[in-house]
Amino acid sequence: MSALSALAPQRLLALFRADAISVAREPVLFVNLFIGLILPILLAAFGDQIDAYAGQSLGITGFSAYAVPFALITPAILIGWVTGMLLLEDRDDGPLLALEVTAIGKGGFLLYRTFVLMLIASAATLFTLTLLLPDQPGLYFPLVLLISLESVFISFALVALAGNKVEGMALSKILNMLALVPLLALLATPWRYAAGIIPSFWIGEILLRADGHLSGLTFLIALVVHIASLVFLFRLVTRRLG
């Protein structure tokens, strides 16, 4: 039976139910699924007041616009972290070994986790986009796709680089800094493109440089960088999972 069988509706729901129970039992994981939405909600509600304060106190106009990339990508990063920690737990505690002899195998299970992760990250991103960029629907599809891939990137990076859950917790502090990388798009040309190998840079390039008009070339480069990084990490993940 192929790995795609993991996405059969009945099996998909059974796996998702088991994951939901696991997350609900771990307060840290459960909270991180939702805590990332606090920032975009606050930014949408108090953006004008934040801009006024920043203008008066710091002399910075349009401060909230610079916070939008960070607010958009943070929920996806935290959701990816939750999935990565679940995979580390499954690897450390042995369930992944048991899956090797099941119909879906470890490959099917990883496909299931990636599929569900992208769905949840896409929903969270779409929600934040409607809050923060209600007048730029043309950016919704490319940003939802790219940011959901960012979520998978975080999940894969945790599994590929962390030896156990403790290392995963420590590594998460470094990976969380990727939410700040989009701000590098504010650097002058061509220096900012030195950060172009980091997938999250392109979120800033789209939001802080596109002015609501995304070029096909920028989106294509962003997509290629994201996919290339995921292919590289996927190879590392499959080795670490055995």
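[next item in queue]
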Amino acid sequence: MAVQATFATASNAPLALVTGASDGLGRAIALELAREGMRLVLADLKTESLRETARLLQDEHGHEPKLVALDLRDVDAMRATVDALTASQGPIGVLVNNAGVAHRGAAIDVTPADWDNVMQTNLRGSFFLSQCVARHLIATGTGGAILNLASTYGLVGYAGRSVYGTSKGALIQLTRMLAIEWAPHGIRVNALAPATVETPSRASFLSSPDVRETLLTRIPLGRFGTPEDVAAAARYLCSSAAGFVTGHILSVDGGLTAV
């Protein structure tokens, strides 16, 4: 059940939909977009997982975001959700495709189920949710901004990340394709490609000293990223300050891809 929102921000402020906003990068991005003055819609598979993000937004900004349950594998559900949001809240001016599924393991061991699970969410889900939002923006003549969360694994090779990296590499190319096609409609499409970021979901993985050392040796700045590092870049690309930026892939990686 979606939670009805009362926004303290101006009713004509951009409406931003952030997927996977329950913690980590999604939560940090939602907070930054709220600081930019945007109205927020937070999406995840279950709205219960979004309540802590909603509480933080309430404490900092005095309003509750709208929470929606969204399954990126269900295109009909995505269309219905976007239609309902647009009808009740106005056009979705900003979409952040943050939700994603990770997969670690040797390529030789990948199963069709592993492949489909990652691609359905990271690539197929991002494409069709972007399509749903863009259809409304094109129909109303309203410009907007779409931001895809890619990864440095989509830019460089690395063992054990074949499926995840392929999904993010495809998402990077999708970003360029949509940016060109939708530019005449005033819809900007960009992507962020973070290196390893210390988020709650990676705490267990990064707790190994050997893993930390191996990954840190690839980053010239000598540290992992923070959710706030990525959120600051997201805020820029989603804001009017980046009004002449589209089709760009911004690496937030401490210099990893510069080596």
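[queue empty]
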